[in-house]
Protein backbone atom coordinates (compact mmCIF):
# COMPACT_ATOMS: atom_id res chain seq x y z
CA UNK A 1 0.00 0.00 0.00
CA UNK A 2 2.78 2.39 0.95
CA UNK A 3 4.63 1.66 -2.29
CA UNK A 4 1.57 2.63 -4.31
CA UNK A 5 0.70 5.74 -2.27
CA UNK A 6 3.98 7.63 -2.70
CA UNK A 7 4.07 7.44 -6.54
CA UNK A 8 0.42 8.48 -6.61
CA UNK A 9 1.09 11.57 -4.51
CA UNK A 10 4.09 12.48 -6.64
CA UNK A 11 2.03 12.13 -9.81
CA UNK A 12 -0.67 14.37 -8.38
CA UNK A 13 1.89 16.99 -7.37
CA UNK A 14 3.35 17.14 -10.86
CA UNK A 15 0.10 17.17 -12.83
CA UNK A 16 -2.24 19.15 -10.57
CA UNK A 17 -3.82 22.32 -11.89
CA UNK A 18 -3.46 25.78 -10.34
CA UNK A 19 -6.58 27.43 -8.98
CA UNK A 20 -7.26 31.07 -9.73
CA UNK A 21 -7.58 33.00 -13.01
CA UNK A 22 -4.94 32.77 -15.73
CA UNK A 23 -3.72 36.16 -16.93
CA UNK A 24 -4.77 37.64 -20.26
CA UNK A 25 -3.96 41.18 -21.35
CA UNK A 26 -6.94 43.57 -21.05
CA UNK A 27 -8.51 44.78 -24.28
CA UNK A 28 -7.99 48.43 -25.12
CA UNK A 29 -9.77 50.60 -27.64
CA UNK A 30 -6.56 51.70 -29.38
CA UNK A 31 -6.21 53.79 -32.53
CA UNK A 32 -5.14 52.14 -35.73
CA UNK A 33 -1.62 52.70 -36.96
CA UNK A 34 -1.21 56.36 -37.88
CA UNK A 35 1.81 55.95 -40.16
CA UNK A 36 3.37 53.33 -42.37
CA UNK A 37 6.79 54.19 -40.95
CA UNK A 38 7.56 52.72 -37.53
CA UNK A 39 8.86 55.22 -34.98
CA UNK A 40 12.50 54.39 -34.33
CA UNK A 41 14.28 55.79 -31.31
CA UNK A 42 17.91 54.94 -30.52
CA UNK A 43 18.62 53.89 -26.95
CA UNK A 44 21.29 56.62 -26.81
CA UNK A 45 18.86 59.21 -28.17
CA UNK A 46 20.59 62.11 -26.40
CA UNK A 47 23.51 61.84 -28.84
CA UNK A 48 21.17 63.29 -31.49
CA UNK A 49 21.83 66.72 -29.91
CA UNK A 50 25.54 66.48 -30.88
CA UNK A 51 26.91 67.73 -27.56
CA UNK A 52 29.77 65.58 -26.15
CA UNK A 53 29.43 67.26 -22.73
CA UNK A 54 25.79 66.20 -22.52
CA UNK A 55 26.80 62.64 -23.44
CA UNK A 56 29.38 62.66 -20.66
CA UNK A 57 26.95 64.04 -18.07
CA UNK A 58 24.29 61.44 -18.82
CA UNK A 59 26.90 58.67 -18.62
CA UNK A 60 27.99 59.99 -15.22
CA UNK A 61 24.41 60.17 -13.97
CA UNK A 62 23.66 56.59 -15.07
CA UNK A 63 26.64 55.42 -13.02
CA UNK A 64 26.28 57.49 -9.85
CA UNK A 65 22.68 58.67 -9.43
CA UNK A 66 21.21 57.54 -6.10
CA UNK A 67 17.69 56.98 -7.44
CA UNK A 68 19.14 54.43 -9.85
CA UNK A 69 21.10 52.84 -7.01
CA UNK A 70 17.80 52.51 -5.12
CA UNK A 71 16.12 50.94 -8.16
CA UNK A 72 18.99 48.46 -8.58
CA UNK A 73 18.72 47.42 -4.93
CA UNK A 74 14.97 46.94 -5.35
CA UNK A 75 15.63 44.65 -8.34
CA UNK A 76 18.08 42.62 -6.23
CA UNK A 77 15.49 42.30 -3.48
CA UNK A 78 12.79 41.19 -5.92
CA UNK A 79 15.19 38.65 -7.47
CA UNK A 80 15.91 37.17 -4.05
CA UNK A 81 12.20 36.94 -3.22
CA UNK A 82 11.51 35.28 -6.57
CA UNK A 83 14.24 32.77 -5.79
CA UNK A 84 12.65 32.03 -2.41
CA UNK A 85 9.24 31.49 -4.02
CA UNK A 86 10.77 29.16 -6.61
CA UNK A 87 12.64 27.18 -3.95
CA UNK A 88 9.41 26.55 -2.04
CA UNK A 89 8.24 24.39 -4.94
CA UNK A 90 11.09 21.93 -4.30
CA UNK A 91 11.88 19.55 -1.45
CA UNK A 92 14.12 20.77 1.35
CA UNK A 93 16.83 18.77 3.08
CA UNK A 94 18.14 19.43 6.58
CA UNK A 95 20.82 17.78 8.72
CA UNK A 96 20.38 17.39 12.46
CA UNK A 97 22.73 16.21 15.17
CA UNK A 98 22.08 16.01 18.88
CA UNK A 99 23.53 14.93 22.19
CA UNK A 100 21.56 14.21 25.37
CA UNK A 101 22.71 13.16 28.85
CA UNK A 102 19.92 12.32 31.28
CA UNK A 103 19.09 10.39 34.48
CA UNK A 104 15.93 8.33 34.65
CA UNK A 105 13.89 7.36 37.70
CA UNK A 106 15.06 4.26 39.59
CA UNK A 107 11.45 3.13 39.93
CA UNK A 108 10.79 3.14 36.21
CA UNK A 109 14.17 1.91 35.00
CA UNK A 110 14.61 -1.80 34.27
CA UNK A 111 16.80 -3.55 36.80
CA UNK A 112 20.41 -3.68 35.72
CA UNK A 113 20.06 -0.69 33.34
CA UNK A 114 22.08 2.41 34.08
CA UNK A 115 20.19 5.36 35.53
CA UNK A 116 22.36 7.86 33.67
CA UNK A 117 22.79 7.49 29.90
CA UNK A 118 24.18 9.44 26.97
CA UNK A 119 22.22 9.48 23.70
CA UNK A 120 23.68 10.66 20.42
CA UNK A 121 21.60 11.22 17.28
CA UNK A 122 22.31 12.20 13.67
CA UNK A 123 19.83 12.27 10.82
CA UNK A 124 18.83 13.81 7.52
CA UNK A 125 15.30 15.16 7.17
CA UNK A 126 13.62 15.81 3.81
CA UNK A 127 10.31 17.66 3.57
CA UNK A 128 8.11 18.64 0.64
CA UNK A 129 4.79 20.41 0.42
CA UNK A 130 2.75 18.98 -2.44
CA UNK A 131 1.44 21.85 -4.55
CA UNK A 132 -1.77 20.11 -5.61
CA UNK A 133 -3.80 23.32 -5.94
CA UNK A 134 -1.12 25.63 -7.32
CA UNK A 135 -0.65 27.85 -4.27
CA UNK A 136 3.13 27.72 -4.52
CA UNK A 137 3.11 27.97 -8.32
CA UNK A 138 0.88 31.03 -8.18
CA UNK A 139 3.11 32.50 -5.50
CA UNK A 140 6.16 31.92 -7.71
CA UNK A 141 4.30 33.43 -10.68
CA UNK A 142 3.54 36.54 -8.63
CA UNK A 143 7.14 36.80 -7.45
CA UNK A 144 8.47 36.51 -11.01
CA UNK A 145 6.05 39.20 -12.18
CA UNK A 146 7.10 41.44 -9.31
CA UNK A 147 10.74 40.91 -10.29
CA UNK A 148 9.92 41.85 -13.89
CA UNK A 149 8.07 44.95 -12.65
CA UNK A 150 11.08 46.05 -10.60
CA UNK A 151 13.34 45.57 -13.64
CA UNK A 152 10.98 47.59 -15.82
CA UNK A 153 10.78 50.30 -13.15
CA UNK A 154 14.56 50.45 -13.10
CA UNK A 155 14.58 50.88 -16.89
CA UNK A 156 11.92 53.57 -16.60
CA UNK A 157 14.03 55.32 -13.97
CA UNK A 158 17.03 55.25 -16.31
CA UNK A 159 14.95 56.78 -19.10
CA UNK A 160 13.51 59.42 -16.79
CA UNK A 161 16.95 60.26 -15.40
CA UNK A 162 18.45 60.66 -18.87
CA UNK A 163 15.61 63.02 -19.81
CA UNK A 164 15.98 64.99 -16.57
CA UNK A 165 19.71 65.42 -17.03
CA UNK A 166 19.25 66.58 -20.63
CA UNK A 167 16.47 69.03 -19.73
CA UNK A 168 18.37 70.41 -16.73
CA UNK A 169 21.52 70.80 -18.81
CA UNK A 170 19.61 72.65 -21.51
CA UNK A 171 18.00 74.85 -18.85
CA UNK A 172 21.47 75.67 -17.53
CA UNK A 173 22.66 76.61 -21.01
CA UNK A 174 19.53 78.73 -21.49
CA UNK A 175 20.25 80.63 -18.28
CA UNK A 176 23.87 81.04 -19.43
CA UNK A 177 22.64 82.60 -22.66
CA UNK A 178 20.08 84.83 -20.94
CA UNK A 179 22.64 85.98 -18.39
CA UNK A 180 25.00 86.90 -21.22
CA UNK A 181 22.18 88.81 -22.95
CA UNK A 182 21.37 90.65 -19.71
CA UNK A 183 25.02 91.63 -19.18
CA UNK A 184 25.38 92.87 -22.76
CA UNK A 185 22.12 94.78 -22.43
CA UNK A 186 23.30 96.32 -19.15
CA UNK A 187 26.58 97.44 -20.76
CA UNK A 188 24.66 99.00 -23.62
CA UNK A 189 22.19 100.78 -21.32
CA UNK A 190 24.91 102.07 -19.02
CA UNK A 191 26.72 103.46 -22.05
CA UNK A 192 23.46 105.07 -23.16
CA UNK A 193 22.92 106.45 -19.65
CA UNK A 194 26.39 108.02 -19.60
CA UNK A 195 25.66 109.64 -22.94
CA UNK A 196 22.31 110.99 -21.71
CA UNK A 197 23.98 112.33 -18.56
CA UNK A 198 26.58 114.19 -20.64
CA UNK A 199 23.88 115.59 -22.90
CA UNK A 200 21.79 116.64 -19.91
CA UNK A 201 24.72 118.44 -18.34
CA UNK A 202 25.37 120.13 -21.68
CA UNK A 203 21.74 121.15 -21.97
CA UNK A 204 21.20 119.03 -25.07
CA UNK A 205 18.52 116.76 -23.61
CA UNK A 206 15.90 116.81 -20.88
CA UNK A 207 16.12 115.34 -17.41
CA UNK A 208 13.21 113.09 -18.39
CA UNK A 209 15.33 111.38 -21.05
CA UNK A 210 18.19 110.94 -18.58
CA UNK A 211 15.93 109.49 -15.86
CA UNK A 212 14.31 107.11 -18.32
CA UNK A 213 17.75 105.87 -19.39
CA UNK A 214 18.70 105.50 -15.72
CA UNK A 215 15.53 103.45 -15.09
CA UNK A 216 16.19 101.13 -18.00
CA UNK A 217 19.77 100.56 -16.86
CA UNK A 218 18.54 99.71 -13.35
CA UNK A 219 15.97 97.33 -14.81
CA UNK A 220 18.66 95.44 -16.72
CA UNK A 221 20.89 95.43 -13.64
CA UNK A 222 18.10 93.85 -11.56
CA UNK A 223 17.67 91.06 -14.09
CA UNK A 224 21.25 89.82 -13.64
CA UNK A 225 21.03 88.63 -9.99
CA UNK A 226 17.70 86.96 -10.72
CA UNK A 227 19.19 85.01 -13.60
CA UNK A 228 22.34 84.26 -11.59
CA UNK A 229 20.24 82.80 -8.78
CA UNK A 230 18.27 80.62 -11.20
CA UNK A 231 21.50 79.49 -12.86
CA UNK A 232 23.07 78.52 -9.54
CA UNK A 233 19.99 76.55 -8.50
CA UNK A 234 19.95 74.75 -11.85
CA UNK A 235 23.62 73.84 -11.52
CA UNK A 236 22.99 72.40 -8.06
CA UNK A 237 20.00 70.41 -9.31
CA UNK A 238 22.09 69.00 -12.15
CA UNK A 239 24.90 68.06 -9.76
CA UNK A 240 22.42 66.11 -7.61
CA UNK A 241 21.18 64.24 -10.68
CA UNK A 242 24.80 63.38 -11.48
CA UNK A 243 25.29 61.88 -8.01
CA UNK A 244 27.94 64.40 -6.96
CA UNK A 245 29.11 64.43 -3.34
CA UNK A 246 28.13 67.28 -0.97
CA UNK A 247 31.62 68.77 -1.32
CA UNK A 248 31.37 68.63 -5.10
CA UNK A 249 27.92 70.24 -4.90
CA UNK A 250 29.48 73.27 -3.23
CA UNK A 251 32.91 73.39 -4.84
CA UNK A 252 32.63 71.53 -8.13
CA UNK A 253 32.16 73.13 -11.51
CA UNK A 254 29.98 71.82 -14.30
CA UNK A 255 31.31 71.61 -17.83
CA UNK A 256 29.67 73.54 -20.63
CA UNK A 257 29.33 72.30 -24.15
CA UNK A 258 27.48 73.81 -27.08
CA UNK A 259 25.76 77.16 -26.64
CA UNK A 260 22.01 76.78 -26.72
CA UNK A 261 21.64 78.50 -30.07
CA UNK A 262 24.15 76.02 -31.56
CA UNK A 263 22.60 72.86 -30.17
CA UNK A 264 21.24 70.54 -32.80
CA UNK A 265 17.49 69.92 -32.77
CA UNK A 266 16.88 66.32 -33.91
CA UNK A 267 14.62 65.77 -36.91
CA UNK A 268 10.96 64.97 -36.39
CA UNK A 269 10.11 61.41 -35.38
CA UNK A 270 7.21 59.64 -37.14
CA UNK A 271 5.34 58.57 -33.99
CA UNK A 272 3.01 55.61 -34.50
CA UNK A 273 0.24 55.95 -31.91
CA UNK A 274 -0.95 52.34 -32.00
CA UNK A 275 -0.68 49.19 -29.91
CA UNK A 276 3.08 49.10 -30.53
CA UNK A 277 3.43 51.83 -27.89
CA UNK A 278 2.49 49.24 -25.24
CA UNK A 279 5.66 47.30 -26.05
CA UNK A 280 8.03 50.29 -26.09
CA UNK A 281 7.50 51.93 -22.71
CA UNK A 282 9.03 50.38 -19.58
CA UNK A 283 6.50 52.06 -17.29
CA UNK A 284 3.64 50.32 -19.12
CA UNK A 285 5.48 47.01 -18.93
CA UNK A 286 5.94 47.55 -15.18
CA UNK A 287 2.24 48.34 -14.68
CA UNK A 288 1.26 45.21 -16.59
CA UNK A 289 3.70 43.08 -14.59
CA UNK A 290 2.12 44.37 -11.38
CA UNK A 291 -1.27 43.36 -12.78
CA UNK A 292 0.06 39.87 -13.55
CA UNK A 293 1.35 39.57 -9.98
CA UNK A 294 -1.95 40.70 -8.49
CA UNK A 295 -3.83 38.26 -10.73
CA UNK A 296 -1.62 35.37 -9.56
CA UNK A 297 -2.16 36.25 -5.89
CA UNK A 298 -5.89 35.54 -6.34
CA UNK A 299 -4.89 31.92 -6.95
CA UNK A 300 -2.75 31.94 -3.80
CA UNK A 301 -5.74 33.13 -1.78
CA UNK A 302 -8.14 30.61 -3.38
CA UNK A 303 -5.78 27.70 -2.68
CA UNK A 304 -6.50 28.20 1.02
CA UNK A 305 -9.93 26.60 0.43
CA UNK A 306 -8.23 23.25 -0.21
CA UNK A 307 -6.18 20.87 1.98
CA UNK A 308 -2.46 21.39 2.37
CA UNK A 309 -0.48 18.16 2.08
CA UNK A 310 3.15 17.78 3.08
CA UNK A 311 5.56 14.84 3.19
CA UNK A 312 8.44 14.45 5.61
CA UNK A 313 11.03 11.70 5.65
CA UNK A 314 13.97 11.19 8.00
CA UNK A 315 16.93 8.84 7.88
CA UNK A 316 19.50 8.74 10.65
CA UNK A 317 21.08 6.98 13.56
CA UNK A 318 20.69 6.93 17.34
CA UNK A 319 23.24 5.43 19.72
CA UNK A 320 24.43 5.50 23.32
CA UNK A 321 28.06 5.85 22.23
CA UNK A 322 29.85 7.71 19.48
CA UNK A 323 31.65 4.53 18.36
CA UNK A 324 28.44 2.78 17.33
CA UNK A 325 26.53 5.87 16.10
CA UNK A 326 26.85 4.97 12.42
CA UNK A 327 26.63 1.19 12.71
CA UNK A 328 23.75 -0.69 11.11
CA UNK A 329 22.07 -1.54 14.37
CA UNK A 330 21.57 2.12 15.31
CA UNK A 331 19.82 3.08 12.08
CA UNK A 332 16.51 4.97 12.31
CA UNK A 333 14.03 6.18 9.71
CA UNK A 334 10.58 7.71 9.55
CA UNK A 335 8.06 8.79 6.93
CA UNK A 336 5.22 11.18 7.76
CA UNK A 337 2.41 12.46 5.60
CA UNK A 338 0.44 15.42 6.91
CA UNK A 339 -2.79 16.94 5.58
CA UNK A 340 -4.37 20.11 6.91
CA UNK A 341 -7.80 21.16 5.68
CA UNK A 342 -9.77 24.30 6.58
CA UNK A 343 -13.14 23.72 8.24
CA UNK A 344 -14.36 26.96 9.77
CA UNK A 345 -12.55 30.30 10.22
CA UNK A 346 -15.41 32.82 10.23
CA UNK A 347 -15.01 33.60 6.52
CA UNK A 348 -11.33 34.62 6.62
CA UNK A 349 -10.47 32.59 3.51
CA UNK A 350 -13.26 34.16 1.47
CA UNK A 351 -12.33 37.62 2.70
CA UNK A 352 -8.70 37.03 1.69
CA UNK A 353 -9.91 36.10 -1.79
CA UNK A 354 -12.05 39.26 -1.89
CA UNK A 355 -9.06 41.35 -0.82
CA UNK A 356 -6.82 39.76 -3.49
CA UNK A 357 -9.50 40.35 -6.13
CA UNK A 358 -9.81 43.98 -5.06
CA UNK A 359 -6.04 44.45 -5.33
CA UNK A 360 -6.19 42.92 -8.81
CA UNK A 361 -8.85 45.46 -9.82
CA UNK A 362 -6.67 48.24 -8.41
CA UNK A 363 -3.73 47.03 -10.48
CA UNK A 364 -5.98 46.80 -13.55
CA UNK A 365 -7.18 50.38 -13.05
CA UNK A 366 -3.59 51.55 -12.60
CA UNK A 367 -2.52 49.75 -15.78
CA UNK A 368 -5.39 51.22 -17.79
CA UNK A 369 -4.60 54.68 -16.46
CA UNK A 370 -0.92 54.20 -17.36
CA UNK A 371 -1.91 53.32 -20.93
CA UNK A 372 -4.12 56.41 -21.14
CA UNK A 373 -1.31 58.57 -19.75
CA UNK A 374 1.18 57.11 -22.23
CA UNK A 375 -0.95 58.00 -25.24
CA UNK A 376 -1.68 61.44 -23.78
CA UNK A 377 2.03 62.14 -23.19
CA UNK A 378 2.92 61.02 -26.70
CA UNK A 379 0.19 63.10 -28.31
CA UNK A 380 1.11 66.12 -26.15
CA UNK A 381 4.78 65.72 -27.06
CA UNK A 382 3.96 65.62 -30.78
CA UNK A 383 1.85 68.77 -30.51
CA UNK A 384 4.45 70.53 -28.36
CA UNK A 385 7.24 69.64 -30.79
CA UNK A 386 5.35 71.10 -33.75
CA UNK A 387 4.25 74.19 -31.81
CA UNK A 388 7.74 74.84 -30.41
CA UNK A 389 9.22 74.84 -33.90
CA UNK A 390 6.66 77.37 -35.12
CA UNK A 391 7.14 79.56 -32.03
CA UNK A 392 10.91 79.62 -32.49
CA UNK A 393 10.55 80.60 -36.12
CA UNK A 394 8.15 83.41 -35.18
CA UNK A 395 10.41 84.61 -32.35
CA UNK A 396 13.38 84.69 -34.72
CA UNK A 397 11.40 86.81 -37.19
CA UNK A 398 10.24 89.10 -34.39
CA UNK A 399 13.77 89.64 -33.07
CA UNK A 400 15.07 90.47 -36.56
CA UNK A 401 12.29 93.03 -36.99
CA UNK A 402 12.86 94.54 -33.52
CA UNK A 403 16.60 94.89 -34.09
CA UNK A 404 15.82 96.83 -37.27
CA UNK A 405 13.20 98.89 -35.43
CA UNK A 406 15.73 99.76 -32.69
CA UNK A 407 18.24 100.88 -35.28
CA UNK A 408 15.64 103.09 -36.97
CA UNK A 409 14.35 104.50 -33.66
CA UNK A 410 17.90 105.42 -32.64
CA UNK A 411 18.51 107.17 -35.97
CA UNK A 412 15.25 109.11 -35.72
CA UNK A 413 16.02 110.20 -32.14
CA UNK A 414 19.58 111.21 -32.95
CA UNK A 415 18.26 113.32 -35.84
CA UNK A 416 15.46 114.87 -33.79
CA UNK A 417 12.52 113.18 -35.52
CA UNK A 418 11.18 111.27 -32.49
CA UNK A 419 11.35 111.24 -28.71
CA UNK A 420 13.65 109.12 -26.59
CA UNK A 421 10.61 107.13 -25.51
CA UNK A 422 10.58 105.42 -28.94
CA UNK A 423 14.18 104.31 -28.39
CA UNK A 424 13.38 103.00 -24.90
CA UNK A 425 10.41 101.04 -26.18
CA UNK A 426 12.50 99.52 -28.94
CA UNK A 427 15.33 98.62 -26.53
CA UNK A 428 12.91 97.10 -24.04
CA UNK A 429 11.14 95.06 -26.71
CA UNK A 430 14.43 93.86 -28.21
CA UNK A 431 15.78 92.78 -24.82
CA UNK A 432 12.62 90.82 -24.05
CA UNK A 433 12.58 89.30 -27.54
CA UNK A 434 16.16 88.05 -27.09
CA UNK A 435 15.18 86.38 -23.80
CA UNK A 436 12.04 84.94 -25.40
CA UNK A 437 14.01 83.49 -28.31
CA UNK A 438 16.25 81.62 -25.85
CA UNK A 439 13.13 80.27 -24.12
CA UNK A 440 11.69 79.25 -27.48
CA UNK A 441 14.83 77.29 -28.35
CA UNK A 442 14.74 75.69 -24.89
CA UNK A 443 11.09 74.74 -25.36
CA UNK A 444 11.91 73.12 -28.69
CA UNK A 445 14.75 71.10 -27.16
CA UNK A 446 12.57 70.04 -24.24
CA UNK A 447 9.78 69.05 -26.62
CA UNK A 448 12.19 66.77 -28.47
CA UNK A 449 13.24 65.19 -25.15
CA UNK A 450 9.62 64.72 -24.11
CA UNK A 451 8.88 62.97 -27.40
CA UNK A 452 11.86 60.64 -27.03
CA UNK A 453 10.73 59.85 -23.49
CA UNK A 454 7.08 59.36 -24.48
CA UNK A 455 8.12 56.88 -27.16
CA UNK A 456 10.11 54.85 -24.63
CA UNK A 457 13.58 56.20 -25.36
CA UNK A 458 14.53 53.22 -27.51
CA UNK A 459 13.56 50.70 -24.82
CA UNK A 460 12.57 47.22 -25.96
CA UNK A 461 10.83 44.41 -24.09
CA UNK A 462 13.37 41.68 -23.21
CA UNK A 463 12.67 38.59 -25.38
CA UNK A 464 12.50 36.32 -22.32
CA UNK A 465 9.50 38.24 -21.02
Automatic annotation (TrEMBL):
It is a lipid-anchor. Keywords: Lipoprotein, Membrane, Palmitate, Signal, Transmembrane, Transmembrane beta strand. Residues 1-18 form the signal peptide. The keyword Transmembrane applies. SUPFAM superfamilies: Outer membrane efflux proteins (OEP). GO terms for cellular component: plasma membrane. GO terms for molecular function: efflux transmembrane transporter activity. It is found in: Cell membrane. InterPro entries: MdtP/NodT-like, OMP_efflux. The keyword Transmembrane applies. Its main location: membrane. It holds the Pfam family OEP. Belongs to the outer membrane factor (OMF) (TC 1.B.17) family. This is Efflux transporter outer membrane subunit. It comes from Aquitalea palustris.
Amino acid sequence: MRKRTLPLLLSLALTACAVGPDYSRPKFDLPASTTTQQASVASDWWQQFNDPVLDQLISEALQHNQDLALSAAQVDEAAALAGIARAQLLPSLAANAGYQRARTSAETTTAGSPLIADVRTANLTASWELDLWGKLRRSSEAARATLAASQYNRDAARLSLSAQVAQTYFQMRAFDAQLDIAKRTLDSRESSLQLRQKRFKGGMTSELDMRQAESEAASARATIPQLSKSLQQTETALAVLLGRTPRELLEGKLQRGQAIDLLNVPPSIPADLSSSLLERRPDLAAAEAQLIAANARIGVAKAAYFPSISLTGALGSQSLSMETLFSGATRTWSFVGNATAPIFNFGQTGLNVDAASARQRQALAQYQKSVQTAFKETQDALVASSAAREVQEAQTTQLTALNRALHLATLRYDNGYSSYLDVLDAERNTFQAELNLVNAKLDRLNAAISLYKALGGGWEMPPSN
